[in-house]
Amino acid sequence: MMAMLAGIVGIGFGAGTASAAAASSVAAGYAHTCAIPANGSLWCWGGNYSGQLGDGTTTGRVAPARVGDASDWAKIEAGTSYNCAIRTDRSLWCWGSNSRGQLGDGSTTRRAAPVKVGDATNWADVSAGDSHTCAVRTDGTLWCWGFNRFGQLGTGNSNYYETVPVRVGTASNWATVTTGYAHTCAVRTDGTLWCWGDSSAGQLGLGFLGYSILPAQVGTATTWAGVTAGYTFTCANRSDATLWCFGENGYGQLGVSGTYQVSPVQVGAGRGWAGVTAGQDTACATATDGSLWCWGNNMAGQVGDGTTTARFAPTRVGSATTWTTSVATFYHTCAVQTGSSVWCWGNNANGQLGDGTTTQQPAPVRVNL
Could you tell me if 254 and 201 are in contact, meaning their C-beta atoms sit under 8 angstroms apart? Predict the structure, then answer.
C-alpha cells in the first residue's frame, strides 16, 4: 500500500551477522515484514499463511529468513498478504496470496516463492494493495492488475479482476503510484496528483463521495512530490515539505480532528515533512529534522508512543532524530534509523516485529539479528 521514499538505512540479518548492512527498502503487510539489505538479498518474517514470506513454505517466522539466494533485489512492497519486488535488472516478481490475480502471473494460484510478472525489464516503481497491484515503467507508463470491483485499476472497464498487467490510459509521464484497499493514487512528473477507484469515504480527494473508474486529477496543484494510500484514506506530501491527507478519519488517520474529508487537508502545519507512509488506519511521517511521527489507529501500539490510544494528530515516536524516510506501517510499524538499525513496534501475534518473540510492543524494539 505504501509508496515509500527510501533512504540510506541500516539493518543486519541472519544467524552469525556480526555487523549491520545498509537496507534500501522495508515493507509491512497485515502480519509480515520484508526488507532488502544493501547487499541486495531479500529477507521476510512474520505470518506466512499465504506463502507471503517467499521461502517456498507456509511456515511462519519470528525472525528474518532469507528469500532464495538472489542478491539483486532493489525494492520491496508488501500488500495485505502478498509482496511484489523489483530487481536491479528491472524485472518484477510477486508472491503470496493471489485470489484476485494480484500477482500478475496470469493465474489466481497462490505462490509461496517469487514468480516473474511477464517478460518486461523496465519496471521502476510498484505498489501492492489489498488485492490489486499497480506499477510504473521507466517509460512513464502505468500498469495495474488484480481486483477491480470498485474501478481501482483505472482502466475504465468493468472486468471483476485482471490477472496480468493492463495499461492505465495513454499517459507516459507517471512517476510513482500507491494502492489502498480499493483505490489508487499516483503522481505524474509534472507534479500533479491523480486518484481513482472507491471514494466512499472521500479517499480520492476529489470533493465527493462515490467512485471514479478512470484517473481524476486532485485539485490543480502541481507541487505534489509523493503519495501513499491506506485502507480508505490517502496522504501526500508537496515539494514545499507540507503534508496533506484526505478520506476516512474514524481513528484520526488524517492527522486532524473531525470526520472524513473529501478534499486534502493540511497536517502538522509548521513542521517540514520529508516523507509519509500510510497503512491500514495508521500513518507515519519523517520530519526534515529526522524525527518520526505517527497517528491514527493505535489498537496494537502501532503509533509507537507507548500506548494503545488512537491519535488524531502527529505524535512523536521517541526522541531520536536519526529516522530515515524508509518507514512501513499496517497493524505494526517498522522504520529504519541512519545508524544501521531497523526498529519495529505494534502487533506481533505472528512474529512480524522480527525480534524473535510474539509479544506486542507499543514502542520501538530493535529487530533481533
Answer: no
Identity of residue 82: Y
Cell digits of residue 231: 485502507
Cα pseudo-dihedral 88, 90, 96, 97, rounded to 10: 160
Give the gyration radius of the chain's Cα atoms: 18
Name residues whose C-beta falls within 8 Å of residue 284's C-beta, 6 or more positions apart in sequence: 276, 277, 292, 293, 294, 295, 317, 327, 329, 333, 335
Give the three cell numbers for residue 186.
Answer: 499516483
Nearby residues of 152 by Cβ (< 8 Å), 6 or more positions away = 129, 132, 144, 179, 180, 182, 183, 184, 196, 197, 198
How deeply is 169 buried, as exposed, middle or buried, from its count of CB atoms within 10 A (0-12, 13-18, 19+)? middle
* 18, burial (CB in 10 Å: exposed 0-12, middle 13-18, buried 19+): exposed
CA 321, CA 177: separation in Å to the nearest integer?
Answer: 28
Q: What's the burial of 99, exposed, middle or buried (CB within 10 Å: 0-12/13-18/19+)?
A: middle
Work out the number of other CB atoms within 10 angstroms of the CB of residue 227. 27
For the purposes of burial, counting CB atoms within 10 Å of the CB of 269, is it exposed (0-12), middle (13-18) or buried (19 or more)? exposed
202-238: pLDDT as tens digits: 999 999 999 999 999 999 999 999 999 999 999 999 9
Place of cell 484476485: 100
- Please report which confidence band the pLDDT of residue 339 belongs to, taking 50, 70 and 90 as the band edges: low
Read off the pLDDT of each residue in 229-249 and give the average, rounded to a whole number.
98
Residue 354 C-alpha cell reads as: 522480527
Whether 247 has a pLDDT exceeding 60, the answer reads yes
Scanning the structure block, which residue is given the C-alpha cell 505472528? 350
